[in-house]
Amino acid sequence: MTEVKKYSIDTSNLDFDPDKVRQQYIQERDKRLREDGFGQYQHASGDFSGFMEDHYVEPGFEREPLNDEVEVVIIGGGFGGLLTGAQLRKAGVEKIRFIEKAGDFGGTWYWNRYPGAQCDVESFVYFPLLEELDYIPKERYSHAPEILDHSIAIAKKYDLYRDTCFQTEVTELRWDEVTNLWTIQTDRKDQIKAHYVVMANGCLTRPKLPGIPGINSFKGHTFHTSRWDYNYTGGSSEGDLTNLADKRVGIIGTGATAVQCIPHLGKDAKELYVFQRTPSSVDIRNNAPTDPEWAENLQPGWHQERVKNFSMTVSGRPPKKAKSNQNQVDDGWTDVANEAEKMAREKPQTTAAEKKELLEIADLKKMQEIRARVSDIVKDEATADQLKAFYWQFCKRPCFHDDYLQTYNLDSVSLVDTEGQGVEQITPAGLVVNGKEYPLDCLIFGTGFELGSSYTTRAGYDVIGRDGIALSDKWADRPSTLHGISSRGFPNCFFLGYIQTGVSPNFTHMLGEQAQHLAYVIKHGRKIGAKTIEPTQQAEDAWVAVIEQTAEAVERHFAKCTPGYYSNEGETGNRNGFMNGQYGGGPEKFFQIIADWREEGSLKGLEIT
After folding, report:
1. What is the third-level CATH fold of 212-285+362-445?
2. Which of 19, 261, 365, 514 is most buried by its number of CB atoms within 10 A?
3. Domain boundaries of the chain, sorted by first residue
4. How far is CA 327 from CA 38, 79, 228, 235, in A?
5. In this structure, are residues 190 and 96 in contact, taking their beta carbons and an 8 Å threshold?
6. What is the reported pLDDT for 231?
């Protein structure tokens, strides 16, 4: 067990002992650590490939294979691909082909149609291109159908349906050194050639399953939350799951997805058993319809200003300009930063070490409030105690909901807490925890997505670059890029996502900045007639060194955390996980780095032929 160092600043005014709370955090983390780390999960393939099926298209789709050439292929039709397509259209690129395994655009929001699905970041900053589309979200935290509709609206505005291949999966990318083109092979037997390839595969599309003994023995009905089976449950994303009225339902998982669908399951199922390993931090959401008067008074440029304001505030770096120095979003994401800033004002001339302690104290206070909220809402004391999260707020993605905790007051709902150990076994009849079997008619996996496997595993295909080098081999130990966008040996190939970039809870902001950056590079390449664009080895090595230096603080923080995908399930040596190898200076500093790089104008660090 890690020893807890006491604070140097005065904590006597607190109504709790921060050192004791931190000690409990460590105890809760330690009992959940497992030697197998991400090995406790398994791919939704082989016998489990049914969990990957698309319920939202008509079966039997077929088409003739393509054997042609385009200028840019974008793999993935989520917000990353959509924003890239929009930027490339602005740059005058006409021959763009999307390749998307789903039946339409939307990415995460195409697949996640479970009851209660919403964005947990304020819609006024989460929705991209609001001013460009002249659109204002209907609510402060929009529901999934509206987000999917917005994705489709972006595709229509920028004419991205043209030449798109839906219901198609890439099986390999291969560089041709004679033609200086990529060949994209697919499961539809396509052989598509492209000058540039953009990998916008996304990170929340490939469901993962727990490696529980007997998982394939269950005789009841089962599905993953990202492939919700409304034919079985009845209802829609708004709930009303009437077919469950006579069913005993179990759900494994209490993360962000489960927090949103459990209230609907609890309301409609005859019996609901929630199998919990680690409780989520669940704060109040306070959703509300958009104020029309507020919307009418918005001035041009409001959207990017608000997006940046949120990013800076949640990172603990409030904007310095007087016009933007207030927290415009002011929600649960920014509470810790608000409190730390308030305490810093009350204690002027603090050292860097003291500022760090103030931020920790603010986090401790916030989590005390969240745990107190559980006691205020959940009537059964034992259940309330099991629902209390003992870890730092950002060890796991924070959740916000106004009905989740209340669900445990229903007589038909039972929390089955596994004391951090997880379900022991799945039987033909149900689940076993602590030697007790819970009979079920339906088992739902709310176990999230593959975020700890290698990049090419998550993508579902390999990339073969110059001299036959495979991306899976080059990145076997860790990714290696320039600005997270491109990698030596893979010319004209660009990456979007959380690879050596600035971490932000607002995914669309990060994706939008990346899309703008790579579109700038492609536009320049088109202007000068470039055959190949890739980083020099020196530039790539320099960026990796920056990542290594700045990521240390992030990794030290996650080493203190209870296991989860943020902390690589406790695998501190895993350099391929979702949150490892990130730029540790925060999103706004990273965005400024790449903006300054573009402003300098020489494309420093890129080798162009």
Report:
1. FAD/NAD(P)-binding domain (3.50.50)
2. 514
3. 69-206+452-534+586-608, 212-285+362-445
4. 37, 26, 37, 38
5. no
6. 95
